[in-house]
User: What shape does this take?
Amino acid sequence: MKQKSIPRITAHRGASGNAPENTIAAIELAANEGADWIEIDVNISSDGIPVLHHDDDLDRCTDGHGLVIESSMEELEQLDSGAWFSSRYRGERIATLDECLDVCESLDLSINLEIKPSSGWEIPTTDQIAEVLHRRHTLPDMVISSFSHIALLRAARQIEFIPRASLFLVAPPDWKTLTDEVSAINLHLHDNTLLTADAIDSYHRAGLGVYCYTVNTADDARELFAQGVDGVFSNYPGLLLDAGLG
Ligand code: G3P
Ligand code: MG
Assistant: This one.
């Protein structure tokens, strides 16, 4: 698929500093704050519907309990996913991947879809996401990432038309093998002290873009860009864009 290059600022879980993460409200706010790309976390319900949710369980970001993977879509639809963040967002619902794609297409937002499977569910989760992406007639520009190498290998086979990014807390010694195995275009890494200018240079020489999470101040973003990082994921995309870092 044609790939617009990822800009320097991606809204992490939507504009999740100012709206409940991974909701339609957070995605709309990201667009309002000026972001061109959003990052979302995608898991599946017990009946295989891809939904936006970061944690395995429902407790932190909804008024429900238990595991996403053990909850049917009908059960997930009943939950409030906004009130935990602020009463202003009461009534927000868990978004399906389909709903997210509709909104992103209408707002001209591109997507870093992070596959966030519950342990042991890497392949079914990826396959259900693939089913949605294959069914749609058009798609925004996208990159697929995951901490799960199993999920990325599966995505490379089942959703081969969308580029991939390997996602790590810290790049492991075998980062080159792992990125080659999934034909990754990017490395997505946590902002940490091991991310030196030399390390970034070696990733670039291997042809990989380097994107860093989660960067919430203009000073931190400036420092990373000075080291050679290509882009950052931020809960406050508007703040970084207003600082002229876009
Ligand atoms: O994709 C970057 C970042 O979202 C990875 O960490 O835990 O926020 O999904 P997490
Ligand atoms: Mg994520």
In short: The chain is about 35% helix and 20% strand. Residues 39, 41, 114 surround magnesium ion (ligand 2) (CB under 6 Å). The longest helix spans residues 122-135.
